[in-house]
Specification:
Keywords: ATP-binding, Ligase, Nucleotide-binding. GO terms for molecular function: ATP binding; ligase activity; metal ion binding. The protein has 348 residues and is α/β, with parallel strands linked by helices. 31% of the residues lie in helices and 24% in strands. Strand 12 and strand 13 form a beta hairpin. Helix 1 crosses helix 12.
Length: 348
């Protein structure tokens, strides 16, 4: 049994990729029966449940979690657990889970690297120390420091942006664009563009910064998202996605892939992770950040001919898998709805 514990939206497509590989390659467990995929989550997530053979709800109380993991693994004969939301909790309990004969895949093997990747300023310092092309970043904690950073950086980088030093989903990101109409943040907030003066005034009137932020150059792009399978820092497979609105171009070689592999090595990545890059004014890619977890778009790669979830599990479990080759290179991102059984509609 392969167990996918709580993750982000990609938990569903990872399950789909694994079940496809089980069918196509006749993967079996020690008993000779076909492998199955178990998926669990703390919330009601029918789209994830529908993609698995077995679905469970995880406890919300952390004090119950280890018991839940060990008893569930014993009950279902789980051989490997993949966590879509890496956390210090799993690293603290890695030894206990491993002692039960379970392979644990979290994205890292050392919580120090998880902390490093989450701290964008510290991560940028690491990239600079390793001479990995990156986007410069200045951490600020006060409104005065922010004003100083903006003044200092604009002489070299006329276009700037700002975002929280930690966090996901791009929450809190703004492009500081002094040519933007004053009302743009109201009429088109999804563009995330705001005049510097408007941004500073809003901060001042709300009492200053509420959390550490980083100021960075705004790079024109294109932006690329590289999904990688790694074991102990060694990259087993990589697939990039070059973004252009709702269209994405898939690729498996090039400078962005090379940069992502260097990042994975430095962080001793272990699992299915993601590195993001963006091109500068000269067209040269620079690393933006690394997420030591699957990206939301990792499932798009299933259309390419390269099944990254399958590569990850085949390597850990010693399962047969034919060479994966890039066959299709363009996808369009669309919304999708799934039906919820009447017996479960009361959760809505």
């Amino acid at each position: 049994m392969i167990w996918l514990m709580e993750g982000f939206s990609s938990q569903r497509t990872i399950a789909q990729g694994l079940r496809r590989a089980i069918r196509e390659n006749a993967w079996c467990g020690a008993s000779g029966q076909a492998l199955q995929v178990l998926a669990s989550h703390r919330q009601f997530r029918p789209e994830i449940s529908a993609a698995a053979d077995i679905a469970l709800r995880e406890p919300t109380d952390l004090t119950e979690k280890l018991h839940f993991v060990l008893t569930t693994a014993e009950r279902y004969g789980v051989s490997v657990i993949h966590t879509g939301k890496p956390s210090a909790w799993f690293e603290r309990h890695r030894q206990a889970i491993g002692a039960a004969g379970i392979t644990l895949i979290t994205g890292v093997r050392d919580a120090r690297f998880l902390t490093l990747a989450e701290d964008k300023a510290a991560f940028t310092d690491m990239l600079a120390a390793q001479a990995i092309p990156h986007t410069p970043a200045v951490r600020v904690e006060t409104l005065e420091a922010l004003r100083d950073a903006l003044h200092a950086m604009k002489s070299t980088w006329p276009r700037l942006c700002i975002k929280p030093n930690t966090g996901i989903y791009g929450l809190g990101y703004w492009r500081l664009d002094d040519d933007a109409p004053a009302s743009l943040m109201l009429s088109a907030p999804d563009q995330r563009r705001i005049r510097t003066s408007t941004y500073l005034t809003a901060l001042e009137e709300s009492g200053g910064l509420k959390e550490p932020m980083i100021v960075m150059p705004y790079l024109p792009g294109p932006e690329c998202s590289i999904d990688l399978v790694a074991e102990g820092g060694r990259v087993m497979a990589a697939l990039g996605r070059r973004k252009n609105g709702t269209m994405q171009t898939l690729f498996d070689r090039g400078e962005e892939i090379e940069l992502a592999c260097r990042v994975a090595e430095q962080l001793e990545a272990d699992g299915l992770i993601n590195v993001q890059t963006r091109a500068d004014d000269q067209g040269n890619p620079r690393v933006l950040e690394c997420n030591l977890r699957p990206s939301g778009g990792v499932g798009y790669g299933l259309h390419s001919g390269i099944n990254l979830p399958a590569i990850m599990m085949a390597g850990r479990l010693g399962l047969p898998l034919p060479p994966q080759q890039l066959r299709h290179t363009t996808v369009r991102i669309v919304d999708e709805a799934i039906p919820v059984p009447a017996s479960e509609s009361h959760h809505a």
